[in-house]
Design brief:
extended, two-stranded antiparallel sheet
């Protein structure tokens, strides 16, 4: 998971709002022992405002020439395995 500033809230796929919009206090939750399982690559949580993308590639695979401000859709190929 990553952290970010200036987000309105954070939601997980298993519990919904984890950090409610514009929260004014820290909320501590413990999900150990609740059997939460996710498939590899499945969505875990989301920022309700803002955007952060983490791209993890296998060794030797490079990103193609991507222009600034490129609109990217889920499932879109970004890497060129031939490079």
């Amino acid at each position: 998971m990553v952290g970010a500033l200036l987000v309105s809230g954070v939601s997980s796929v298993w519990a919904g709002d984890e950090i409610p919009p514009y929260a004014d206090r820290v909320i501590v939750r413990d999900y150990r022992g609740q059997g939460i399982q996710l498939a590899r690559g499945a969505e875990m949580a989301r920022f309700n405002y803002g955007s952060t993308v983490i791209v993890v590639l296998p060794k030797g695979m490079m990103l193609g020439d991507l222009p600034a401000e490129l609109v990217v859709r889920m499932g879109q190929d970004l890497a060129d395995p031939a490079r």
